[in-house]
């Protein structure tokens, strides 16, 4: 009987500790943090103007956000700022131990007024507002279509800031990067287990084939739908496999040296484009 009592004491202490931690998170003041998207991804969010009409000069990227501490009966406001990103280069000795490191700021940083509307603009009054009664919402960032984006992409790293309405949540959910371009880009949520299992590794050649077959966008929203529906994944995978076979068996493509389709059409040694046939 004594053994049971001794075992219960640390358990009760642990529960008390959890209650104290929960109180810190939820009872001191409302807190806010970014949240994963529908596919469970928290990787960089990729946005490309390639899906827009030629006349589109701006758009809004929405990121999901979560309030901890319950809803309120008034609108509450979020603040964000741009932060720099850094690359770290390590020097190692012959044993593989790190002996030195060099930290350099990335040069592909988005520029306010050129690639996105500055966050102090009145346009953000509603885009950074959590409506009354909501704890799961979204914030919007206005991105701009600069001519340079047709041959390069830039990175906008945003970070939440504390406000009169909110303290901050978990540190790992306070920042996220939006890559902005006007080129065909890998959807940011492609790398999930489901996408790789059903559609294989990403390549631009494969992406272009999928767009042609779907006759529409194959972007983050499309990937989210594939993630949420087994029948959707099965149907389109079979369509992609059929289209790839048709392409590879086309005498004109064979004669032109375009078939079989490769990930890099300019490199005859690059991997073949394939789709998994089971799963």
Topology:
Layout: H1 2-26, E1 31-34, E2 45-48, E3 58-68, E4 76-77, E5 79-82, E6 86-92, E7 98-105, H2 124-127, E8 129-130, E9 136-144, E10 154-161, E11 167-168, E12 175-181, H3 193-199, H4 204-214, H5 220-228, H6 230-249, H7 251-255
Parallel strand pairs: 1-11, 2-12
Antiparallel strand pairs: 1-3, 3-9, 4-8, 5-10, 6-7, 10-12
Helix pairs in contact: 4-6, 5-6
Helices and strands, in order, run as HEEEEEEEHEEEEEHHHHH
Low-confidence stretches: 1-25
Count of helical regions? 7
Number of strands: 12
Helix-strand category: alpha+beta
Radius of gyration from the alpha-carbon trace, in angstroms:
24 Å
* Percent helix range: 25-40%
Strands across the major sheet, in which order?
A: 9-3-1-11
How is the main sheet built? 4 strands, mixed
The coarse overall form would be globular
Question: DSSP strand (E) fraction?
Answer: 15-25%
Mean pLDDT over the residues: 88
| Through-space gap between termini | 52 Å
The oligomerization state is single chain
């Amino acid at each position: 009987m004594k053994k049971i009592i001794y075992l219960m004491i640390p358990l009760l202490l642990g529960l008390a500790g959890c209650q104290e931690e929960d109180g810190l998170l939820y009872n001191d003041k409302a807190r806010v943090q970014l949240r994963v998207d529908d596919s469970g991804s928290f990787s960089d969010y990729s946005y490309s103007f390639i899906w827009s009409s030629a006349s589109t000069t701006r758009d809004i990227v929405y990121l999901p956000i979560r309030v901890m501490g319950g809803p309120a009966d008034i609108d509450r406001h979020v603040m964000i700022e741009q932060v720099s990103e850094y690359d770290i280069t390590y020097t190692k000795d012959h044993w593989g131990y790190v002996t030195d490191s060099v930290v350099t700021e990335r040069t592909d940083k988005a520029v306010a007024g050129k690639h996105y509307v500055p966050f102090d603009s009145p346009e953000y009054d509603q885009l950074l507002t959590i409506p009354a009664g909501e704890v799961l919402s979204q914030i919007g960032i206005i991105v701009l279509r600069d001519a340079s984006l047709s041959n390069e992409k830039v990175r906008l790293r945003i970070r939440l800031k504390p406000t009169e309405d909110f303290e901050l949540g978990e540190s790992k959910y306070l920042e996220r990067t939006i890559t902005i371009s006007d080129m065909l880009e890998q959807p940011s949520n492609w790398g999930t287990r489901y996408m790789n299992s059903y559609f294989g590794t990403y390549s631009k050649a494969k992406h272009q084939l999928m767009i042609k077959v779907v006759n529409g966008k194959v972007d983050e929203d499309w990937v989210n739908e594939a993630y949420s529906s087994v029948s959707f994944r099965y149907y389109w995978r079979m369509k992609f496999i059929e289209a790839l076979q048709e392409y590879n068996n086309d005498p004109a493509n064979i004669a032109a040296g375009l078939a079989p389709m490769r990930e890099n059409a300019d490199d005859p040694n690059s991997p073949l484009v394939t789709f998994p046939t089971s799963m």
